[in-house]
Amino acid sequence: MQWYDHAVALVAFSVLLGVFGWVLHASFESFFFPDKTFLQLVLTDVSVHDVILRLIVSLCFFIFGIVLMNNVARRRCAEEELKDVNKALSNTNIELEQKIKERTAEIELLLKQKNRLIVGLSHDLKTPLTPLMGLLPMIISKEKDPKLTELLAISLRNVHYIRDLVSKTIDLALLDSTTIGFTVERISLLKEIDSVLENRSLTLSNHNIYVENKISDDIFINADRLKLREVLNNLLMNSIKYTTSSGGTITVNATKEDVQVKIWITDTGIGMNSEQIQYVFDELYKADPARQDHASTGLGLTICKRIVEKHGGKIWVESPGPGKGTTVFFTLPSPVE
Predict the structure, then answer these.
(1) Is residue 175 over pLDDT 50?
(2) Are 283 and 172 in contact (CB under 8 A)?
(3) Residues 239, 327, 298, CA angle at the centre, nearest 5°?
(4) At what angle are helices 48-142 and 146-176 packed, to 10 degrees?
């Protein structure tokens, strides 16, 4: 709607202002001619000079009325246009929100279907592996042919590898599910790491690896105990796997930072370059794929990342370069005192 749609009201208002100007001028003259009536000053006994002056005053008021009504009309038009735009934006936002909800529901459904497929497929794969894990060692113990024994041992290692891959795939699928929650409790970090190191003491000894635990006994965290052990075991086994056969050192340390505790595990292993660090948390990625004797699934660090992030922390890797060792950092929430 344009301002000229209000032309009638505009002219009428301007004429009224013009009359008001005429009367106003007559009112001023009444102070100087008290012997004349107001009607005489308005309509009669008006000189040509006064008529011209009053017409000029009335014209000024008329022009002022036109400008004022024009501005009012334009403002109303702008307000109506703004209302139309706001209404259109509101409708667009409602449509976008609805589309986002629909897409989110579709994605959640696809994720649930994917997780169900992975869990079901993994279960079907684990079922035939269980008897193989029991039968192959028995066959190996009774076999006399060295070459056949070696082939059977390779088969057994691959069975263990597949079972480990299936188990980790199920763990990853469950961690991606929104229905799985953690049982968070106050945990002494020192005691938990000591327990993990004790369980891995034989493996550490066989690989000639010395572990230095620098964590103080006053550091506590809020975490799911089983998931924390899984993270610590994965990181510790990763350091063991990528330490040279001549042995090395693994250092565990932690410090409290505000509402979180930063934990890091440093080894003297093969180290990593910048490209390896960039992809180290990707699924099925192996920092050294040529070393197949480790039978690494490539899912350990991915699982660690999911667990840490579900606790509200973050995890990252640093390394000075190949042959210079690796440090894995991660944070977990600290109990509120």
Answers:
(1) yes
(2) yes
(3) 50
(4) 150
- Overall residue count recorded for the chain in this entry: 337
Per-residue confidence (pLDDT) for residue 333, from 0 to 100: 93
Instruction: Provide the β-strand partners of residue 249.
Output: 210
Amino acid at 152: L
Dist. CA 223–CA 74, nearest whole Å? 64
CA angle 247, 250, 252 (to 5 degrees): 170
Q: Where are the domains of the chain?
A: 1-180, 185-333
Query: Residue 265 burial by CB count (10 A; 0-12/13-18/19+): exposed, middle or buried?
Result: buried
Two tokens at 193?
């790491």
Tens digit of each residue's pLDDT (9 = 90 or more) over 11-66: 666 566 556 666 666 666 666 556 565 555 555 555 666 666 666 766 666 676 66
Q: What's phi and psi for 289, nearest 5 deg?
A: -65, -15
pTM: 0.59
- Domain boundaries 185-333, CATH class: alpha beta
Locate 284 and state its tokens.
């099925």
